[in-house]
Specification:
This protein is mainly beta. It has a single domain, classed as Methylamine Dehydrogenase, Chain H (7 Propeller), CATH 2.130.10. It contains one helix and 20 strands. Strands 1-2-3-4 form a four-stranded antiparallel β-sheet, with no helix packed on it. The protein has a four-stranded antiparallel β-sheet with strand order 5-6-7-8, with no helix packed on it. A hairpin with a 7-residue loop joins strand 3 and strand 4.
Length: 276
């Protein structure tokens, strides 16, 4: 029998590295699997909430998602491209097209007949009337930053975070409101300072902003051009949020949380999946 011998000091070092790696990887995998499971659950439910006029998606993802499904089409963004797959036959997806883009592509958010793609240096808007071959309409350029985006009605909401690798040398974090009523000519109509924004979500007259370790912010967008803070929950560290039928699914360093909210601005914790 062959037996591999390892020097005691090297063995100790290897075990330490494996333990460290496990501590880093396991929470990420656990959280990812939890989110995936919840997405599958959400995708099987029929929605009666039509306030956001979303395109017919097979599932709902957060604002920091790198893939989206609308109808029989899967969209995936890499760091420098948009890939489109026909999934009419789910067991045998067919690559329809690959759109080369600039570097720094981060997120994708489908809304009605358009795709809104967040990048380090701006927001790309694609016409998605032909799902298998979306066409670039415009690019809204901003300072270099991480920028997830969500859309409702005529307006896109974009968070720009300072202190991140994708925004070197810039100390200002902000929430930008962009008028996309003419997708070929988007225009910023408002900007306000944020603490450290990550993902965000929108539903009706509420805009939800994840502020990382600092907490979770709820904004009133009854006037969609001028978001006004209604609540700030410092006890809820948050990185991204999924909004669905008066429910919030929030991911943060403490785990995955599900809240229920109503029109009276009451928030109730329904469940928590901790990440150890």
């Amino acid at each position: 029998m062959f037996q591999m011998m390892i020097h005691p000091l090297k063995n100790t070092t290897v075990m330490r590295e494996l333990t460290t790696m496990k501590r880093k990887i396991v929470p990420i995998l656990f959280l990812g699997l939890a989110v995936a499971g919840l997405l599958l659950i959400l995708s099987s439910c029929e929605s009666s909430d039509k306030s956001s006029d979303l395109s017919p998606q097979a599932g709902v993802g957060g604002s920091m998602a790198r893939f989206a499904i609308t109808g029989n089409t899967l969209y995936i963004v890499s760091k420098q491209s948009l890939e489109v797959y026909n999934i009419t036959d789910g067991g045998s997806p067919v690559k329809a097209v690959k759109k080369n883009m600039n570097v720094g592509i981060e997120t994708i958010f489908p809304y009605q007949s358009h795709l809104f793609i967040g990048a380090n240096d701006g927001m790309y808007i694609y016409n998605n009337s032909n799902p298998n071959d979306p066409q670039l309409l415009s690019k809204f350029t901003h300072v270099q930053s991480c920028d997830p985006v969500v859309v409702q009605g005529k307006y896109a909401y974009v968070t720009l975070r300072s202190g991140a690798l994708c925004r070197p040398g810039n100390t200002l974090s902000s929430l930008d409101v962009v008028d996309v009523s003419n997708p070929s000519n988007p225009a910023m109509v408002h900007s306000q300072v944020m603490s450290s924004p990550f993902g965000l979500g929108v539903s009706g007259n509420k805009l939800f902003i994840c502020e990382g370790d600092q907490g979770f912010r709820v904004m009133d967008i009854s006037n969609p051009i001028l978001p006004v803070q209604k609540h700030f929950f410092a006890e809820i560290p948050s990185y991204d949020v999924i909004v669905r039928n008066k429910h919030l699914i929030i991911t943060g360093k403490g785990g995955l949380f599900q809240y229920q909210f109503d029109q009276d601005d009451k928030y109730e914790l329904l469940s928590k999946i901790p990440v150890l």
